[in-house]
Amino acid sequence: MPRSVDHAECRRRIVRSVWSLIGRRGLAAVTMRDLTAEAGYADGGLSPYFRNKDEILQAAFQYAFPFDNTNARATTSIGDRGGLSALRQLCLEVMPLDEMRLQEACVGIAFADRAQCDVRMAATYRTAVGQWREQMRMYLRQARVAGEITTGRPDALVVDTLLTTLVGFQTAAVPAYPGMSAARQTQILDGLLGT
Amino acid sequence: MPRSVDHAECRRRIVRSVWSLIGRRGLAAVTMRDLTAEAGYADGGLSPYFRNKDEILQAAFQYAFPFDNTNARATTSIGDRGGLSALRQLCLEVMPLDEMRLQEACVGIAFADRAQCDVRMAATYRTAVGQWREQMRMYLRQARVAGEITTGRPDALVVDTLLTTLVGFQTAAVPAYPGMSAARQTQILDGLLGT
What we know:
The structure is a homodimer of 195-residue chains.
Chain A: H1 3-25, H2 32-38, H3 53-64, H4 69-78, H5 83-94, H6 99-115, H7 119-145, H8 155-172, H9 182-193
Helix pairs in contact in A: 1-3, 1-6, 3-6, 4-5, 5-7, 5-9, 6-7, 7-8
């Protein structure tokens, strides 16, 4: 295997083994030493792969969210559905409704926080949001054609409303915001979808 | 002035002078030394008032949000209005529509991130959200009586939907999420309020 492929695979393996530690303990409370130990490396062993916590956070966000975990789950659970049913399912996969998705949300919020003041992280965040936006617009167009959604609001506005709500769930849902149970989040989503 | 009052006043003065630095530069990039310099103290001068960055963040959140900045502005701008108009105005004051509210949002997101894994911060967050929830429910009841809002959804669900959206605006609006301009945020709010 060429060295660069090997290197990329090692990075992926490390991220897969450490991302949820950030979600469980919070970025501020986790040190490079903790992450190194969690990945099963000796002290300093991650330095060929990641220079600092921010680089790991960036990779963890990309792993947890747009490119791996959430989207792989959505692809499976949506299957060959389209329209309103697919749109709703995609939202559900992003919402922190169980322990796994809660940890993803914690990584997402740590990343959003750092992205406020870091140009590179902001670009990654925009890419992730942009992918979801395109996918949601596609399902929404299908839902219009099928007559499942008839609101007079433009598609872009409907999608931005949903995206804002999803980000809000991730930030505030749990544990900072009890009462915002899985059932409550689903009620809110269904209210927005008019279902 | 009794010593304890003096102490509390010093803390308030320090927070007033440093809170926006957290919003402008991001919590991770700001050191205790930066905060101490911004407050005009010599090195170590903040230690009688705050033990660490988290204590300053906690105070900055309380200053920026529930108890001072935002709510003082809302009290002024709402005046003696009630009902739908007051509900809308309260939301607008929380939304990151200008530079000041953007900085408040950055403090809010840094705090929400830390609150995911810190029991004390989570309690403060809940208190802040709880205050807004009560105020919004009051205005919503008035809006129902005046016939301004006629949705069949329960008040608590309407309020939770609005709160989730506000938190979403704060997290994702700007700079991580361009396109979510002030005009766009207002369109989304007005869509949710049915206005």
